[in-house]
Design a protein that fits this description.
2 domains, Jelly Rolls, binds manganese (II) ion, single chain, seven-stranded antiparallel beta sheet, mainly beta, 5 helices, 342 residues
Length: 342
């Protein structure tokens, strides 16, 4: 007998997290949620005008999803292309590993968004921030680098700012001037909520992989709903872990880990879950209201194999022999992929 399947639920939003004057952040890394080695998440809030300062991530790409409010991001790539985008509820961003970026709340309400990173050991509190770097650098070096007197740096922050507070930027950015945008070949913004969902008996799915959003080469995201009684059928993902953020409703997931091992957990709003790569799993709506959740995969290519799809791909006689049952029983199985049963 192998070891037990580790905990598959973590109450991310129930933490206190980091609270700054301009906003807050709560994270789920492999430290808090050890089963999640390939994906980490952060729930962040920014007040109007608050700026998650210029930074980059040395060891992870960043995927963002806005729940409420509005924010603006600006990103630069190694070729000097830059892009500024405004985001509202249901919008997604993707920032490749190492590219410099910032996020600013546009108000009037606080902006709440989810960040997902393609490295479970990544911590949002160990990002490479511009204020931290400049604070570590002698004023004489900065003076030479920026062509200013060393005294000009006396009032620069002495440590990482992380979230700074300032005015809400103008509705239309004044810079860069029209005609000098130098945009990247691939956009960093995708409107997931605007996508027509795939409808099933028991729910719906909107999915954004690198097919729909070409810059998102290392992560796929999906917004799934389960109606009361809905079942995301038994399936597994051959190429990726599945990390989940539960938005509403009561959901139960059961994970199958071979060798007679299975683990079940129940999830409510603000919880995160994980189904490891290759592990069989299914999700059920166990409440009376619709369940909404974000599913994240650490691959830009989405792959799954569902129970009904697998069974219907095999000859009935073979499946009957497998279970030691008459072929007449097997003949009643669905002949097409159910995906979400109602
Ligand atoms: Mn970031
Ligand atoms: Mn799945």
């Amino acid at each position: 007998m192998d070891t037990e399947i580790p905990e598959i639920r973590f109450a991310m939003e129930a933490q206190t997290g980091r609270i700054d004057p301009g906003g807050s952040a709560k994270e789920a890394t492999a430290k808090q949620f050890p089963i999640s080695k390939s994906l980490a998440g952060v729930s962040m809030k920014l007040k109007a005008g608050a700026l998650r300062e210029l930074h980059w991530h040395a060891n992870a790409a960043e995927w963002g999803y806005v729940f409420n409010g509005r924010c603006r991001t600006t990103i630069v790539d190694p070729d000097g292309h830059r892009e500024t985008n405004d985001f509202g509820p249901g919008d997604v961003w993707y920032f490749p590993r190492g590219h410099g970026h910032s996020i600013q709340g546009l108000g009037p309400d606080e902006c709440h968004f989810l960040l997902v990173f393609d490295n479970g050991y990544f911590s949002e509190f160990a990002t490479f921030s511009i204020s931290d770097w400049l604070a570590q650098t002698p004023a004489e070096v900065l003076a030479k680098n920026l062509g200013m007197p060393a005294s000009a740096f006396a009032n620069f922050p002495k440590k990482e700012v992380y979230i700074s507070v300032g005015p809400v930027p103008p509705a239309t950015p004044g810079e860069p001037a029209p005609g000098s945008e130098n945009l990247p070949p691939l956009t960093h913004k995708y409107c997931l909520a605007g996508q027509a969902p795939r409808e099933f008996h028991g729910g719906s799915l909107r999915l954004v992989s690198s097919k729909e959003f070409p810059i998102s080469t290392t992560m796929t995201g999906a917004l799934m709903t389960l109606k009361p009684g809905g079942l995301r059928e038994l399936h597994w993902h051959p190429n990726a872990d599945e990390w989940q953020y539960f938005i509403s409703g009561r959901t139960r997931m059961t994970v199958f880990g071979s060798q007679g091992r299975a683990r079940t957990a129940e999830y409510g709003p603000g919880d995160v879950g994980l189904a490891p790569q290759g592990y069989g799993h299914y999700l059920e709506n166990i409440g009376s209201e619709e369940c909404r959740m974000l599913l994240m995969f650490n691959s830009g290519e989405y792959q799954d194999i569902s129970l009904t799809q697998w069974l219907s791909a095999n000859p009935k006689q073979l499946v009957a022999t497998n279970f030691g049952l008459p072929e007449s029983v097997v003949a009643k199985f669905p002949t097409t992929n159910v995906f979400i049963a109602g």
